[in-house]
Protein backbone atom coordinates (compact mmCIF):
# COMPACT_ATOMS: atom_id res chain seq x y z
CA UNK A 1 0.00 0.00 0.00
CA UNK A 2 1.41 3.39 -1.07
CA UNK A 3 2.10 5.83 1.77
CA UNK A 4 -0.11 8.92 1.76
CA UNK A 5 1.07 12.22 3.25
CA UNK A 6 -0.98 15.00 4.80
CA UNK A 7 -0.62 18.47 6.23
CA UNK A 8 -2.55 19.41 9.34
CA UNK A 9 -4.06 22.86 9.82
CA UNK A 10 -5.06 24.13 13.27
CA UNK A 11 -6.70 27.53 13.77
CA UNK A 12 -8.03 29.03 17.00
CA UNK A 13 -9.68 32.46 17.15
CA UNK A 14 -9.03 34.82 20.06
CA UNK A 15 -11.59 34.73 22.83
CA UNK A 16 -13.70 31.84 21.47
CA UNK A 17 -14.79 29.67 24.39
CA UNK A 18 -16.45 26.89 22.37
CA UNK A 19 -13.36 25.87 20.38
CA UNK A 20 -11.03 22.95 20.97
CA UNK A 21 -7.54 23.92 22.10
CA UNK A 22 -4.72 23.78 19.52
CA UNK A 23 -3.29 20.64 21.13
CA UNK A 24 -6.69 18.93 21.13
CA UNK A 25 -7.24 19.74 17.46
CA UNK A 26 -3.75 18.47 16.57
CA UNK A 27 -4.39 15.19 18.44
CA UNK A 28 -7.64 14.61 16.52
CA UNK A 29 -5.83 15.20 13.22
CA UNK A 30 -3.07 12.73 14.14
CA UNK A 31 -5.60 10.10 15.29
CA UNK A 32 -7.54 10.43 12.03
CA UNK A 33 -4.35 10.21 9.97
CA UNK A 34 -3.22 7.07 11.77
CA UNK A 35 -6.55 5.29 11.27
CA UNK A 36 -6.83 6.30 7.59
CA UNK A 37 -3.30 5.55 6.42
CA UNK A 38 -1.87 9.09 6.33
CA UNK A 39 1.50 10.30 7.57
CA UNK A 40 1.25 13.86 8.90
CA UNK A 41 4.44 15.56 7.69
CA UNK A 42 3.68 19.00 9.18
CA UNK A 43 0.99 20.76 11.22
CA UNK A 44 0.45 24.48 10.66
CA UNK A 45 -0.80 26.45 13.67
CA UNK A 46 -2.73 29.74 13.32
CA UNK A 47 -3.45 31.12 16.80
CA UNK A 48 -5.67 34.09 17.61
CA UNK A 49 -6.50 34.87 13.98
CA UNK A 50 -9.92 35.13 12.33
CA UNK A 51 -10.72 32.80 9.43
CA UNK A 52 -12.68 35.39 7.50
CA UNK A 53 -9.78 36.55 5.28
CA UNK A 54 -7.25 33.99 3.95
CA UNK A 55 -4.72 36.66 3.00
CA UNK A 56 -4.42 37.62 6.68
CA UNK A 57 -3.42 34.08 7.73
CA UNK A 58 0.34 33.67 7.10
CA UNK A 59 0.53 30.00 8.12
CA UNK A 60 -2.45 29.18 5.88
CA UNK A 61 -0.75 30.89 2.93
CA UNK A 62 2.50 29.05 3.66
CA UNK A 63 0.64 25.72 3.75
CA UNK A 64 -1.18 26.39 0.46
CA UNK A 65 2.10 27.39 -1.18
CA UNK A 66 3.78 24.14 -0.10
CA UNK A 67 0.77 22.03 -1.12
CA UNK A 68 1.03 23.50 -4.64
CA UNK A 69 4.71 22.51 -4.96
CA UNK A 70 5.71 20.39 -7.94
CA UNK A 71 7.12 17.62 -5.70
CA UNK A 72 3.56 17.01 -4.34
CA UNK A 73 4.45 16.95 -0.60
CA UNK A 74 0.86 16.30 0.55
CA UNK A 75 -2.09 14.25 -0.66
CA UNK A 76 -4.51 15.89 1.77
CA UNK A 77 -4.97 18.74 4.24
CA UNK A 78 -6.61 17.69 7.51
CA UNK A 79 -8.70 20.10 9.59
CA UNK A 80 -10.86 19.67 12.67
CA UNK A 81 -13.83 21.35 10.98
CA UNK A 82 -14.30 22.92 7.56
CA UNK A 83 -14.75 26.26 9.34
CA UNK A 84 -11.08 26.00 10.42
CA UNK A 85 -10.07 25.98 6.73
CA UNK A 86 -12.21 29.00 5.78
CA UNK A 87 -15.27 30.80 7.16
CA UNK A 88 -16.05 32.39 3.81
CA UNK A 89 -17.62 29.87 1.41
CA UNK A 90 -16.41 31.66 -1.72
CA UNK A 91 -12.83 31.53 -0.47
CA UNK A 92 -13.23 27.91 0.59
CA UNK A 93 -14.44 26.86 -2.86
CA UNK A 94 -11.61 28.72 -4.60
CA UNK A 95 -8.85 27.13 -2.50
CA UNK A 96 -10.39 23.65 -2.52
CA UNK A 97 -10.84 23.74 -6.30
CA UNK A 98 -7.28 24.96 -6.76
CA UNK A 99 -5.88 22.20 -4.56
CA UNK A 100 -8.03 19.35 -5.91
CA UNK A 101 -8.20 20.08 -9.64
CA UNK A 102 -4.66 21.37 -10.20
CA UNK A 103 -2.66 19.55 -7.51
CA UNK A 104 -4.83 16.55 -6.49
CA UNK A 105 -4.87 17.56 -2.82
CA UNK A 106 -8.02 16.85 -0.78
CA UNK A 107 -9.27 18.95 2.14
CA UNK A 108 -10.70 16.66 4.84
CA UNK A 109 -12.66 17.56 7.97
CA UNK A 110 -11.93 14.86 10.55
CA UNK A 111 -15.11 15.61 12.54
CA UNK A 112 -17.49 15.98 9.58
CA UNK A 113 -17.22 12.78 7.52
CA UNK A 114 -18.80 12.88 4.06
CA UNK A 115 -20.08 10.25 1.67
CA UNK A 116 -18.48 9.96 -1.75
CA UNK A 117 -20.07 11.39 -4.88
CA UNK A 118 -22.16 14.49 -5.69
CA UNK A 119 -24.31 14.15 -2.56
CA UNK A 120 -21.18 14.36 -0.39
CA UNK A 121 -20.13 17.58 -2.14
CA UNK A 122 -23.60 19.02 -1.52
CA UNK A 123 -23.42 18.16 2.19
CA UNK A 124 -19.96 19.76 2.35
CA UNK A 125 -21.31 23.01 0.84
CA UNK A 126 -24.22 23.02 3.31
CA UNK A 127 -21.83 22.57 6.26
CA UNK A 128 -19.67 25.44 4.99
CA UNK A 129 -22.72 27.65 4.46
CA UNK A 130 -23.90 26.94 8.03
CA UNK A 131 -20.42 27.76 9.38
CA UNK A 132 -20.37 31.05 7.49
CA UNK A 133 -23.91 31.88 8.65
CA UNK A 134 -22.90 31.14 12.25
CA UNK A 135 -19.79 33.30 11.89
CA UNK A 136 -21.76 36.26 10.51
CA UNK A 137 -24.40 35.91 13.25
CA UNK A 138 -21.70 35.68 15.93
CA UNK A 139 -19.93 38.74 14.53
CA UNK A 140 -23.23 40.62 14.63
CA UNK A 141 -23.83 39.58 18.24
CA UNK A 142 -20.32 40.69 19.25
CA UNK A 143 -20.75 44.05 17.50
CA UNK A 144 -24.14 44.54 19.13
CA UNK A 145 -22.67 43.78 22.55
CA UNK A 146 -19.83 46.24 22.00
CA UNK A 147 -22.28 48.90 20.84
CA UNK A 148 -24.41 48.44 23.97
CA UNK A 149 -21.31 48.66 26.17
CA UNK A 150 -20.22 51.85 24.38
CA UNK A 151 -23.65 53.40 24.87
CA UNK A 152 -23.33 52.67 28.61
CA UNK A 153 -19.98 54.49 28.65
CA UNK A 154 -17.87 51.34 28.92
CA UNK A 155 -14.26 51.56 27.75
CA UNK A 156 -13.18 48.83 25.30
CA UNK A 157 -10.01 49.96 23.55
CA UNK A 158 -6.30 50.08 24.26
CA UNK A 159 -5.81 52.92 26.80
CA UNK A 160 -4.09 55.99 25.31
CA UNK A 161 -1.23 57.97 26.83
CA UNK A 162 -2.22 59.02 30.37
CA UNK A 163 -4.23 55.89 31.22
CA UNK A 164 -3.68 52.23 32.07
CA UNK A 165 -5.82 49.17 32.79
CA UNK A 166 -5.36 47.89 36.34
CA UNK A 167 -8.28 45.49 36.67
CA UNK A 168 -9.87 43.56 33.81
CA UNK A 169 -13.37 44.79 32.89
CA UNK A 170 -12.84 47.92 35.00
CA UNK A 171 -12.42 51.44 33.53
CA UNK A 172 -8.84 52.63 32.93
CA UNK A 173 -7.16 54.70 35.63
CA UNK A 174 -4.96 57.79 35.27
CA UNK A 175 -1.16 57.51 35.09
CA UNK A 176 -0.16 60.82 36.79
CA UNK A 177 3.20 61.42 35.04
CA UNK A 178 1.69 60.70 31.60
CA UNK A 179 -1.40 62.78 32.38
CA UNK A 180 0.88 65.80 32.89
CA UNK A 181 2.12 65.40 29.30
CA UNK A 182 -1.48 65.33 28.04
CA UNK A 183 -2.37 68.45 30.04
CA UNK A 184 0.71 70.22 28.67
CA UNK A 185 -0.30 69.41 25.07
CA UNK A 186 -3.83 70.79 25.47
CA UNK A 187 -2.66 73.88 27.39
CA UNK A 188 0.01 74.76 24.85
CA UNK A 189 -2.35 74.21 21.92
CA UNK A 190 -5.62 75.71 23.21
CA UNK A 191 -4.41 78.49 25.53
CA UNK A 192 -0.86 79.38 24.44
CA UNK A 193 -1.46 79.03 20.68
CA UNK A 194 1.58 76.82 20.04
CA UNK A 195 1.51 74.86 16.77
CA UNK A 196 1.42 71.08 16.55
CA UNK A 197 5.03 70.84 15.34
CA UNK A 198 6.21 73.25 18.05
CA UNK A 199 4.52 71.12 20.72
CA UNK A 200 6.12 67.95 19.31
CA UNK A 201 9.57 69.56 19.35
CA UNK A 202 9.04 70.79 22.92
CA UNK A 203 8.09 67.30 24.13
CA UNK A 204 10.96 65.62 22.28
CA UNK A 205 13.41 68.19 23.66
CA UNK A 206 12.39 67.06 27.17
CA UNK A 207 12.67 63.40 26.09
CA UNK A 208 8.97 62.65 26.61
CA UNK A 209 7.65 59.58 24.75
CA UNK A 210 4.31 58.45 23.29
CA UNK A 211 2.39 55.48 24.70
CA UNK A 212 4.35 53.33 22.21
CA UNK A 213 7.68 54.63 23.52
CA UNK A 214 8.40 56.71 20.40
CA UNK A 215 9.13 60.38 19.78
CA UNK A 216 6.19 62.73 19.26
CA UNK A 217 5.30 63.87 15.75
CA UNK A 218 2.36 65.50 14.02
CA UNK A 219 0.13 62.40 13.98
CA UNK A 220 0.65 61.53 17.65
CA UNK A 221 -0.16 65.11 18.75
CA UNK A 222 -3.22 65.23 16.48
CA UNK A 223 -4.47 61.91 17.88
CA UNK A 224 -4.26 63.21 21.45
CA UNK A 225 -5.91 66.54 20.61
CA UNK A 226 -8.86 64.80 18.91
CA UNK A 227 -9.36 62.04 21.49
CA UNK A 228 -12.43 62.71 23.70
CA UNK A 229 -11.21 60.09 26.19
CA UNK A 230 -9.21 62.85 27.89
CA UNK A 231 -12.31 64.84 28.86
CA UNK A 232 -14.12 61.79 30.25
CA UNK A 233 -15.96 60.76 27.06
CA UNK A 234 -15.76 57.53 25.06
CA UNK A 235 -15.83 57.30 21.28
CA UNK A 236 -16.67 54.04 19.52
CA UNK A 237 -17.23 52.88 15.92
CA UNK A 238 -15.10 55.68 14.45
CA UNK A 239 -13.15 53.45 12.05
CA UNK A 240 -13.77 50.36 9.94
CA UNK A 241 -11.58 47.66 11.46
CA UNK A 242 -10.18 46.01 8.34
CA UNK A 243 -9.35 49.16 6.35
CA UNK A 244 -8.98 51.66 9.23
CA UNK A 245 -11.11 54.02 7.14
CA UNK A 246 -12.96 56.68 9.15
CA UNK A 247 -16.74 56.29 9.16
CA UNK A 248 -19.17 59.21 8.75
CA UNK A 249 -19.46 61.10 12.06
CA UNK A 250 -23.17 60.23 12.22
CA UNK A 251 -22.22 56.56 12.81
CA UNK A 252 -19.92 57.26 15.77
CA UNK A 253 -21.01 56.68 19.36
CA UNK A 254 -19.74 59.43 21.68
CA UNK A 255 -21.04 59.42 25.24
CA UNK A 256 -20.00 60.01 28.86
CA UNK A 257 -17.47 57.41 29.98
CA UNK A 258 -16.99 55.57 33.26
CA UNK A 259 -13.29 56.55 33.46
CA UNK A 260 -11.88 59.75 35.08
CA UNK A 261 -11.12 62.79 32.91
CA UNK A 262 -7.63 64.31 32.62
CA UNK A 263 -8.76 67.69 31.22
CA UNK A 264 -12.01 69.66 31.34
CA UNK A 265 -14.65 69.49 28.61
CA UNK A 266 -14.19 73.24 28.06
CA UNK A 267 -10.46 72.86 27.35
CA UNK A 268 -11.11 69.93 24.98
CA UNK A 269 -13.80 71.88 23.07
CA UNK A 270 -11.50 74.90 22.79
CA UNK A 271 -8.80 72.71 21.25
CA UNK A 272 -11.34 71.25 18.79
CA UNK A 273 -12.42 74.71 17.67
CA UNK A 274 -8.86 75.69 16.83
CA UNK A 275 -8.08 72.38 15.14
CA UNK A 276 -11.14 72.54 12.87
CA UNK A 277 -10.39 76.17 12.05
CA UNK A 278 -6.79 75.54 11.06
CA UNK A 279 -6.90 71.99 9.67
CA UNK A 280 -5.77 71.58 6.06
CA UNK A 281 -5.89 68.14 4.41
CA UNK A 282 -2.45 66.88 3.45
CA UNK A 283 -2.02 66.21 -0.26
CA UNK A 284 -0.35 63.09 -1.60
CA UNK A 285 2.62 62.98 -3.89
CA UNK A 286 2.63 60.55 -6.86
CA UNK A 287 5.14 57.79 -6.29
CA UNK A 288 6.56 58.00 -9.81
CA UNK A 289 7.37 61.71 -9.87
CA UNK A 290 9.65 64.15 -8.06
CA UNK A 291 8.62 67.59 -6.88
CA UNK A 292 12.10 68.81 -7.76
CA UNK A 293 15.30 67.42 -9.26
CA UNK A 294 17.01 67.90 -5.87
CA UNK A 295 14.34 65.87 -4.01
CA UNK A 296 15.77 63.23 -1.69
CA UNK A 297 19.36 64.45 -2.10
CA UNK A 298 19.53 67.48 0.22
CA UNK A 299 20.06 66.50 3.88
CA UNK A 300 19.77 68.35 7.19
CA UNK A 301 23.17 68.88 8.89
CA UNK A 302 21.63 68.63 12.37
CA UNK A 303 19.79 65.29 12.18
CA UNK A 304 20.72 63.83 8.78
CA UNK A 305 17.12 63.55 7.62
CA UNK A 306 16.05 64.51 4.11
CA UNK A 307 15.05 68.10 3.41
CA UNK A 308 11.74 67.72 1.57
CA UNK A 309 10.45 70.02 -1.16
CA UNK A 310 7.13 71.83 -0.88
CA UNK A 311 5.69 73.77 -3.79
CA UNK A 312 5.18 77.51 -3.21
CA UNK A 313 2.95 79.56 -5.51
CA UNK A 314 2.73 83.34 -5.53
CA UNK A 315 1.53 85.89 -8.04
CA UNK A 316 4.72 85.90 -10.09
CA UNK A 317 6.25 82.41 -9.92
CA UNK A 318 6.11 78.82 -8.69
CA UNK A 319 9.11 77.41 -6.82
CA UNK A 320 10.04 74.79 -4.20
CA UNK A 321 11.00 75.33 -0.58
CA UNK A 322 13.20 72.71 1.11
CA UNK A 323 12.80 72.10 4.84
CA UNK A 324 14.11 69.38 7.18
CA UNK A 325 11.57 66.54 7.33
CA UNK A 326 12.46 65.95 10.98
CA UNK A 327 11.70 69.58 11.83
CA UNK A 328 8.26 69.38 10.19
CA UNK A 329 7.55 66.28 12.30
CA UNK A 330 8.79 67.91 15.49
CA UNK A 331 11.77 65.53 15.69
CA UNK A 332 14.58 67.98 14.86
CA UNK A 333 15.35 71.19 16.75
CA UNK A 334 17.13 72.93 13.83
CA UNK A 335 14.97 74.87 11.37
CA UNK A 336 17.10 74.26 8.26
CA UNK A 337 15.33 75.54 5.16
CA UNK A 338 16.16 77.05 1.77
CA UNK A 339 14.22 77.94 -1.38
CA UNK A 340 14.95 76.35 -4.76
CA UNK A 341 15.51 79.89 -6.09
CA UNK A 342 18.69 79.99 -4.00
CA UNK A 343 19.50 76.26 -3.87
CA UNK A 344 19.49 75.44 -7.61
CA UNK A 345 22.13 77.99 -8.70
CA UNK A 346 24.19 77.21 -5.58
CA UNK A 347 24.35 73.50 -6.47
CA UNK A 348 25.16 74.20 -10.13
CA UNK A 349 27.81 76.73 -9.13
CA UNK A 350 29.35 74.25 -6.68
CA UNK A 351 29.59 71.59 -9.41
CA UNK A 352 31.01 74.12 -11.91
CA UNK A 353 33.68 75.17 -9.39
CA UNK A 354 34.80 71.55 -9.13
CA UNK A 355 34.94 71.19 -12.92
CA UNK A 356 36.87 74.45 -13.34
CA UNK A 357 39.42 73.43 -10.72
CA UNK A 358 39.89 69.96 -12.18
CA UNK A 359 40.06 68.56 -8.64
CA UNK A 360 37.34 66.50 -6.96
CA UNK A 361 36.98 64.69 -3.64
CA UNK A 362 34.75 61.63 -3.65
CA UNK A 363 34.03 58.32 -1.94
CA UNK A 364 34.85 55.26 -4.00
CA UNK A 365 32.28 52.46 -3.95
CA UNK A 366 33.54 49.11 -5.22
CA UNK A 367 30.17 47.39 -5.66
CA UNK A 368 26.77 48.70 -6.68
CA UNK A 369 24.33 49.22 -3.81
CA UNK A 370 20.66 50.21 -3.68
CA UNK A 371 21.73 53.85 -3.26
CA UNK A 372 24.03 54.01 -6.30
CA UNK A 373 22.92 54.57 -9.88
CA UNK A 374 24.64 53.86 -13.21
CA UNK A 375 24.46 56.97 -15.44
CA UNK A 376 24.64 54.99 -18.71
CA UNK A 377 21.67 52.82 -17.69
CA UNK A 378 19.65 55.87 -16.65
CA UNK A 379 20.17 57.59 -20.00
CA UNK A 380 19.37 54.43 -21.98
CA UNK A 381 16.14 53.95 -20.01
CA UNK A 382 15.13 57.59 -20.49
CA UNK A 383 15.75 57.39 -24.26
CA UNK A 384 13.48 54.32 -24.43
CA UNK A 385 10.77 56.24 -22.57
CA UNK A 386 11.15 59.16 -24.99
CA UNK A 387 10.69 56.78 -27.96
CA UNK A 388 7.40 55.64 -26.40
CA UNK A 389 6.44 59.29 -25.86
CA UNK A 390 7.15 60.08 -29.54
CA UNK A 391 4.93 57.19 -30.61
CA UNK A 392 2.08 58.47 -28.40
CA UNK A 393 2.46 61.98 -29.84
CA UNK A 394 2.16 60.51 -33.33
CA UNK A 395 -0.90 58.44 -32.36
CA UNK A 396 -2.56 61.54 -30.87
CA UNK A 397 -2.18 63.29 -34.23
CA UNK A 398 -3.29 60.24 -36.27
CA UNK A 399 -6.41 59.88 -34.10
CA UNK A 400 -7.35 63.54 -34.55
CA UNK A 401 -6.68 64.49 -30.92
CA UNK A 402 -3.88 66.97 -31.75
CA UNK A 403 -3.66 69.39 -34.69
CA UNK A 404 -0.69 69.40 -37.08
CA UNK A 405 0.75 72.45 -35.28
CA UNK A 406 0.43 70.76 -31.87
CA UNK A 407 2.00 67.58 -33.26
CA UNK A 408 5.01 69.46 -34.67
CA UNK A 409 5.50 71.47 -31.46
CA UNK A 410 5.28 68.42 -29.17
CA UNK A 411 7.49 66.32 -31.42
CA UNK A 412 10.19 69.00 -31.61
CA UNK A 413 10.31 69.45 -27.82
CA UNK A 414 10.62 65.71 -27.18
CA UNK A 415 13.19 65.21 -29.94
CA UNK A 416 15.35 67.98 -28.47
CA UNK A 417 15.36 66.17 -25.14
CA UNK A 418 16.22 62.88 -26.88
CA UNK A 419 19.08 64.44 -28.86
CA UNK A 420 20.51 65.98 -25.70
CA UNK A 421 20.44 62.65 -23.85
CA UNK A 422 21.85 60.74 -26.85
CA UNK A 423 24.77 63.19 -26.97
CA UNK A 424 25.50 62.57 -23.30
CA UNK A 425 25.20 58.80 -23.77
CA UNK A 426 27.58 58.89 -26.73
CA UNK A 427 30.15 60.80 -24.68
CA UNK A 428 29.87 58.32 -21.82
CA UNK A 429 30.40 55.35 -24.15
CA UNK A 430 33.39 57.08 -25.71
CA UNK A 431 34.84 57.79 -22.28
CA UNK A 432 34.46 54.16 -21.22
CA UNK A 433 36.31 52.98 -24.33
CA UNK A 434 39.32 55.12 -23.38
CA UNK A 435 41.50 54.12 -20.46
CA UNK A 436 41.40 56.79 -17.75
CA UNK A 437 42.27 56.98 -14.10
CA UNK A 438 39.47 57.29 -11.55
CA UNK A 439 39.82 61.04 -11.00
CA UNK A 440 39.67 61.82 -14.71
CA UNK A 441 36.74 59.47 -15.25
CA UNK A 442 34.90 60.97 -12.27
CA UNK A 443 35.34 64.53 -13.57
CA UNK A 444 33.98 63.51 -16.98
CA UNK A 445 30.94 61.92 -15.32
CA UNK A 446 30.32 65.06 -13.28
CA UNK A 447 30.60 67.18 -16.44
CA UNK A 448 27.92 65.06 -18.16
CA UNK A 449 25.67 65.42 -15.13
CA UNK A 450 26.26 69.18 -15.04
CA UNK A 451 25.28 69.51 -18.73
CA UNK A 452 22.04 67.59 -18.13
CA UNK A 453 21.16 69.60 -15.00
CA UNK A 454 21.77 72.86 -16.89
CA UNK A 455 19.45 71.88 -19.74
CA UNK A 456 15.87 73.20 -19.83
CA UNK A 457 14.73 70.33 -22.10
CA UNK A 458 15.28 67.53 -19.55
CA UNK A 459 12.54 66.66 -17.04
CA UNK A 460 12.96 66.71 -13.23
CA UNK A 461 12.86 62.91 -12.85
CA UNK A 462 15.75 62.38 -15.29
CA UNK A 463 17.75 65.18 -13.66
CA UNK A 464 17.18 63.64 -10.23
CA UNK A 465 18.32 60.22 -11.45
CA UNK A 466 21.52 61.49 -13.10
CA UNK A 467 22.37 63.67 -10.09
CA UNK A 468 22.14 60.59 -7.85
CA UNK A 469 24.58 58.77 -10.16
CA UNK A 470 27.47 60.93 -8.87
CA UNK A 471 26.17 62.75 -5.78
CA UNK A 472 25.65 60.85 -2.52
CA UNK A 473 24.12 63.78 -0.63
CA UNK A 474 24.08 67.57 -0.38
CA UNK A 475 24.31 69.25 3.03
CA UNK A 476 23.06 72.81 3.53
CA UNK A 477 24.00 74.62 6.76
CA UNK A 478 21.64 77.57 7.10
CA UNK A 479 23.43 79.32 9.97
CA UNK A 480 26.70 79.37 7.98
CA UNK A 481 25.01 79.68 4.57
CA UNK A 482 27.28 76.82 3.50
CA UNK A 483 26.61 74.15 0.86
CA UNK A 484 28.57 70.88 0.70
CA UNK A 485 28.25 68.38 -2.15
CA UNK A 486 29.37 64.81 -1.37
CA UNK A 487 30.33 62.83 -4.49
CA UNK A 488 30.76 59.09 -4.93
CA UNK A 489 32.45 57.07 -7.68
CA UNK A 490 31.65 53.53 -8.74
CA UNK A 491 33.98 51.99 -11.36
From TrEMBL:
Q: Does the keyword Coiled coil apply?
A: yes
Q: Membrane-spanning regions, if any?
A: none
GO MF: DNA binding; DNA strand exchange activity
Could you tell me which InterPro entries the record lists for this protein? Answer: DNA_bind_recomb_sf (IPR038109), DNA_bind_recombinase_dom (IPR011109), Recombinase_CS (IPR006118), Resolv_N (IPR006119), Resolvase-like_N_sf (IPR036162), SSR_resolvase (IPR050639), Zn_ribbon_recom_dom (IPR025827)
SUPFAM superfamilies in alphabetical order? Resolvase-like
Q: Which residues belong to any copy of the Recombinase domain?
A: 160-281
* Record Pfam families: Recombinase, Resolvase, Zn_ribbon_recom
Swiss-Prot/TrEMBL keywords: Coiled coil, DNA integration, DNA recombination, DNA-binding
User: CDD domains, alphabetically?
Assistant: Ser_Recombinase (cd00338)
Query: Which residues constitute the catalytic centre?
Result: 13
Domain Resolvase/invertase-type recombinase catalytic: from-to ranges? 5-153
Q: Which residue stretches, if any, does this entry annotate as coiled coil?
A: 376-438
**Keyword flag Coiled coil:** yes
GO biological process assignments? DNA integration
Q: Spell out the protein name for this chain.
A: Recombinase family protein
Native organism is Mediterraneibacter gnavus (Ruminococcus gnavus)
